[in-house]
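From the pipeline queue, job 12 of 40. The input is one protein chain; the requested action is below.

Action: predict structure.
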Amino acid sequence: MAKPVQYWDNKTQSTQDGYVIDGNLYTDEAGTQGASAGSQYNDGVTGQRYVMPDGTTADGETYRSSASQHVGNNILADLIAPSDTPSYSGGGMPSVAGYGGGKPSYNSGYDDELSALLDQILNGEDFSYNYETDPLYHQYKESYTREGERSMQDTLGQVSARTGGLASSYAGSVGQQAYNYYMQQLNDKIPELEQRAYGRYRDDQTDLYNKMGLVQNLDNTAYGRHRDNVSDFYYDQNRSDKLSQQALENQRWDMQWQSQQSQQALENGWYERSYSDSRSDYADSRSDYADSQAQQALENGRYEDETAFNRAYALIQMGFSTEEIASALGIPPEQVQAYANRVNNPVRSSGGGRSGGGSSNNETTGIVDKMLSLGDDTAAYEYLVGLGYTNSITQNLWAMYQDKMDSMSSVPWRQSAAHDYDKAWTEITQKIMAGVSAESIGAYLDNAVASGLITASEAEKIADKLGF
């Protein structure tokens, strides 16, 4: 059976007449056209009912839960528009409890009735009693008058019978007394009638108060439903705000995540390229280091061979024998002979005695003695370089000078047992091979000079060789 009802149509945002058939809301009595999703009506029993997307109706909690579950598919926009708000006009059961047009307002439908009742209570006439206008008094009056007149006639009859039917003033007086008695009884009823009238007045006042209380209860019930609609409005508004905020947060998080992924991809690519470049640089460094080590080893071998040759050459020039030179330098005699063959300068065999030398030997000895007389390695080296000899001869003469200095214990800067040029050079070479920095080599030279291991000029010589 179709039940007529007013409902709020969510599609047209207006109040419409509809019909509830088997719990569902239709726009026609035949039930062929269902109301649009989001439309609402009050069934007068369970309260607000909402039309779901499938055409069925549900309570507010089920409706809101369904809306929340379909946010991702934009069904929420079909169920509750952002501007949808409940509205209630008051007046008995609410005719509309829909959503549309801002926060709901309340207009009581009982204001006129309440005002009228209050006016009757406050401005009604005060109690007054006039027995002449009291219908009950007139009923009593008729009854008592009738009985008084009958009593008077009875009294007159009785007196007349005793007097033989003769009228007398006495009979009239006695009959009037009987009548007056009933009239007095009537007058005695007036206070009682007034009390009854006042009781009716009080009952009427009580009825007014009761009516006003009933109307107030109805208005309070209607207002309570209005407050429920307001709560639903704020609930939906807050939920919509939260859903929008959550959507923004999700979007912001997705953008941030995508940005992080892009940044991570860039960093990974940079890391891979950097790692590849580092591996390549490391391989090049290893190769360069190996080359430098090999070159250094070759230069060290050349330097050691050249040093041995220079010293051997000086001893050859001074006339020492092969065995003496080999013993002094710690090299095989064959090596001494090879050095001699390199400069086409024969060396005497052992036992032959040192040669008398020659002009070359005398000249060499004179140069070395001159260097020794200067008393300082730096001055001696500057003097030697100033002679203008070739590098090979200069190095040989410097080696002879150093050998001569080593054998002279009277030279102050050579008296220290700690002095050892070869040791300093060997340690520096080991440090270079170990990858020690130039600053550390410089610090080592300074310490070597301070400790007496080498002289300042020797430190400069080493620095020049190393290219510092």
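Job complete. The radius of gyration is 69 Å.
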